[in-house]
Specification:
21% helix; 10 strands; 14% strand
Length: 362
């Protein structure tokens, strides 16, 4: 079992770290996933309407060349769903792109966020290239989708996951001459405001997400995500982040902890601003010209690249326990509610996800 799993993990690492910039000519498919909740039921502040208004104003919902995107909300089983009426016009306007999945059972923060990885694990091969995990209390910079796409193409094949939100410690990447990309420690708290990962990474998150006894007893979903990665890939110490940050946390009370105060959350001092456009995508013209002759490669030094083949004995969670990844989980289907929205609910045309999940286990 150890040898089989080690080979599988090694194969997955080669898919995560291709060492190549993604050509602009290659179409990319993004799945934005946002867990959401009626924050008033958690004694927190409701801002999802402000978040969606900012997304539209700052071009997250645009159609751009060689990009396909879907936006999926994961409602946590709130008793009162009327808070979604405030964003109903966006569902109607972008009904081919924005969908929502409900839960019949009330889910706390970690259980709702777990569904991100459960969904990613069940995606068909090549159905989406990247998952973009976003919070429901954020705003973004102008022309967000174009800049997001540019950053992903340039850097996401050199990191185990990435983030366009960088609130805390980050520092230059060795051998990378870039003023829009830095690195940060995987094990540091970083927030989940805009975490980007390839769907294949979910197979290493799902088995450990609720095993807090193996994850330093962490509670926050963001730390569960990172600690799971560290258990499977202990040699990967860093991940890449945008610089400056393209995303801003609204610094309101946490819905997980029931905080209602303003200035209770985390923020990022390096946010470029909601009215500012970093215009990274303007490099596409130069980029496309260069791609005519050959694929561009960047020799970015990532700590894992020198260690991938040196630690064949590190595939276990601990010395006495094999890690078994089961892609055929025996779980029951999460029911979908469609009768609590006051307005027409025709937007509930879910795309073809196998969204089975049984949270009663946890």
């Amino acid at each position: 079992m150890n040898n089989v799993f080690q080979k599988e993990k090694q194969n997955d690492l080669t898919k995560l770290y291709t060492g190549k910039i993604i050509p602009f000519s290659q179409k990319l498919k993004y799945l934005f996933i946002m867990p959401c909740v009626n924050r008033l039921e958690r004694n927190a502040i409701q801002v999802i309407e402000q978040t969606f208004q900012n997304f539209e104003n700052n071009n997250l919902f645009d159609n751009i060349e060689n990009v396909e995107w879907k936006f999926l909300l994961l409602e946590s089983g709130s008793k009162d769903l009327s808070y979604l009426n405030n964003i109903y016009p966006y569902f109607e306007k972008y009904k081919n792109n924005i969908n929502i999945i409900y839960s019949q059972n009330p889910l706390d923060g970690p259980k709702n966020i777990y569904r991100i990885f459960d969904i990613a694990l069940k995606l068909k091969e090549n159905e989406f290239d990247f998952i973009i995990w976003m919070d429901d209390d954020i705003v973004v910079c102008n022309n967000f989708l174009k800049n997001c796409d540019y950053w992903i193409r340039n850097y996401m094949n050199f990191t185990i996951f990435g983030s366009l939100y960088s609130p805390y410690h980050s520092f230059p990447v060795p051998n990378l001459n870039s003023n829009i990309c830095k690195q940060s420690f995987v094990r540091s708290y970083h927030g989940s405001c805009c975490t980007i990962f390839k769907p294949i990474l979910a197979k290493y998150i799902v088995p450990l997400f609720f095993k807090t006894n193996l994850l330093r007893n962490v509670v926050e979903p963001d730390l569960r995500f990172r600690e799971s990665i560290m258990k499977f890939f202990p040699n990967i110490q860093h991940f890449l982040v945008s610089y400056p940050s393209l995303v801003y946390h609204l610094n309101i009370g946490s819905a997980i902890y029931g905080h209602q105060q303003i200035k209770k959350g985390h923020q990022c001092k390096e946010f470029i601003g909601t009215s500012n456009d970093p215009k990274w995508y303007l490099n596409y013209d130069f980029y496309k010209e260069k791609l005519k002759s050959e694929m561009i490669n960047k020799n970015i030094t990532i700590e894992i690249q020198s260690n991938i083949n040196k630690n064949n004995n590190n595939m276990n969670i601990n010395s006495n326990e094999d890690v078994i990844i089961d892609n055929n989980l025996n779980i029951e289907k999460d029911n979908i509610k469609t009768n609590k929205i006051v307005k027409n609910n025709s937007f509930l045309n879910l795309f073809n996800f196998n969204i089975d999940m049984d949270i009663s286990r946890y």
